[in-house]
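Translate structure to sequence.
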């Protein structure tokens, strides 16, 4: 199953993705007499994602047709971020050896270079990335995001899939010139408003046969800047979930952005984005 969040009549409802578009959850409730939470984050926090997936998958042909009748056409959809208030956003730095080489840095080999970002950095598909006046060299990085599905602590790697709701596309930004002044400026360099684009779809784990086989690419002005495969990460997604769950309790809606195959210098007038195998693309203009 795939979920998205729409900009619709001044609200940002969650929606079930269908072949022709997306059916907003409030409209689903009205049509079927159901009581699904209205937003993606509320659905995760209520622990009802699997229930919704099973309900959609179990619809009769007639009811599936009714659901499709609620769909807003794909070419009319305006996407919001999947949600705006996750409790935590973990970022993973230098998780592909090749990206570390771009920055003339040594890739971490024993523990990940992880950091936290504020939710005020979140934007959605098509929203402007704003380069702050403090930075003369801001970069954009396409990444695979892992979305936590239930509260967990001290999870073993083998059990990590059971606590993950799914995956999404992310464009993460860095004020690279600020970071280069001093590695202790990492939080500031990562935390400006508009520095975390998130969405448009949450792809549940059952839709991804092999997360290690996914290819992730940073896109710059419509062209591929750098591509790599998740299996080439130093620390792969399930391991990252386990590692960070042993640092602090992970909560529904928490995000782990798993690192980029390559960062690209962005300037006003550019577009920055990400493509991942089998996922809907994410792109943002730069201002």
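Result:
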């Amino acid at each position: 199953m795939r979920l998205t969040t729409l900009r619709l009549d001044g609200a940002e409802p969650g929606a079930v993705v269908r072949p022709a578009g997306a059916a907003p959850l409030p409209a689903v409730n009205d049509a079927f007499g159901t009581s699904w939470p209205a937003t993606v984050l509320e659905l995760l926090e209520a622990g009802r994602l699997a229930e919704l997936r099973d309900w959609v998958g179990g619809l009769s042909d007639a009811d599936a047709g009714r659901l499709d009748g609620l769909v807003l056409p794909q070419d009319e959809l305006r996407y919001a971020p999947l949600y705006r208030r996750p409790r935590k956003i973990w970022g993973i730095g230098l998780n592909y050896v090749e990206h570390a080489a771009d920055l003339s840095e040594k890739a971490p080999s024993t523990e990940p270079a992880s950091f936290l970002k504020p939710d005020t950095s979140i934007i959605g598909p098509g929203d402007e990335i704003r380069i702050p006046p403090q930075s003369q060299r801001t970069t954009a990085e396409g990444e695979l995001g892992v979305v936590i599905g239930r509260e967990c602590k001290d999870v073993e790697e083998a059990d990590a899939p059971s606590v993950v709701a799914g995956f999404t596309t992310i464009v993460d930004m860095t004020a690279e010139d600020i970071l280069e002044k001093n590695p202790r400026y990492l939080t500031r360099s990562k935390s400006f408003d508009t520095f975390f684009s998130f969405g448009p779809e949450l792809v549940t784990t059952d839709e991804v046969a092999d997360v290690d086989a996914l290819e992730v690419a940073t896109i710059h002005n419509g062209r591929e800047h750098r591509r790599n495969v998740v299996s080439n990460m130093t620390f792969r997604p399930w391991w990252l979930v386990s590692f960070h769950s042993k640092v602090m309790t992970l909560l529904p809606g928490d995000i782990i952005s798993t690192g980029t195959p390559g960062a690209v210098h962005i300037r006003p007038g550019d577009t920055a984005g990400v493509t991942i195998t089998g996922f809907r693309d994410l792109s943002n203009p730069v201002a």
